[in-house]
Design a protein that fits this description.
Layout lengths: L47 E3 L2 E7 L8 E5 L4 E8 L5 E6 L4 E6 L5 E4 L3 E5 H4 L1 E2 L5 E6 L2 E8 L2 E6 L6 E9 L1 E7 H4 L4 H11 L8
């Protein structure tokens, strides 16, 4: 699949000058929950970079998140993302022990499936950008979340909470990093967050 036909390939880090794209209170985030959770079939929580955060890194040889290994700050593998070419390219998201939990089929439109979370559907309607591309929303079961583009970072919030509940931050520090509040791991949506983060920073439908 060509770079231009991937609807997420040009998502980039752009942030419109319109300050209305982020509600008040989106400028900072922190958690008061110091205990690492468990999340079912997914691997145990990685080592925390602070009492309130766990840090994941997307590691790849060419910078493409759709062919990468997701590790903690100690380089212990937690997720493996691979894209296989064919009549329709398919990106598979798996746990460290090789159990798949999500796929993206790079058809037109691309189709995303996340086991027990997101039924097979148009990925561009699941990870839905606002008109000004200052935010992107995702739904995971009954829960809704909002990615907010601010400068060189992307922040994740629970959209139903008032005030908005900050959950994670996606940014680059030599490699692509994803800081997640330990409170966010309790909701069982980390797998969906990893899929969305990889799509937001994909470079061309998993091209090599």
């Amino acid at each position: 699949m060509s770079h231009s036909s991937n609807p997420y390939a040009q998502a980039g880090w752009s942030n419109p000058s319109n300050a209305a794209c982020a509600a008040p209170g989106y400028s900072s985030w922190q958690s008061t929950m110091p205990h690492a959770p468990t999340y079912g079939a997914l691997p145990p929580a990685p080592a925390a970079s602070s009492p309130n955060l766990v840090t994941f890194q997307f590691n790849s040889t060419n910078g493409d998140t759709l062919n990468s290994t997701v590790t903690d700050s100690n380089y212990q593998t937690y997720f493996v993302i691979t894209t296989v070419p064919g009549p329709v390219k398919v990106t598979t998201f798996a746990t460290a022990d090789g159990v798949p939990f999500a796929t993206v089929e790079w058809s037109t439109p691309p189709l995303v499936t996340i086991m027990n979370k997101v039924p097979r559907q148009d990925a561009t309607k699941w990870l839905l950008f606002s008109r000004d591309r200052g935010t992107a929303s995702i739904g995971v079961g009954p829960q809704c979340f909002l990615w907010v583009f601010k400068g060189t970072s992307i922040y994740l919030y629970r959209s139903e909470s008032n005030p908005p509940e900050p959950l994670a931050k996606l940014y680059r520090n030599n490699t692509l990093c994803f800081d997640v509040n330990v409170s966010a791991l309790h909701n069982g949506c980390l797998d969906a967050f990893i899929v969305a983060a990889a799509l937001l920073q994909s470079r061309g439908g998993g091209s090599a």
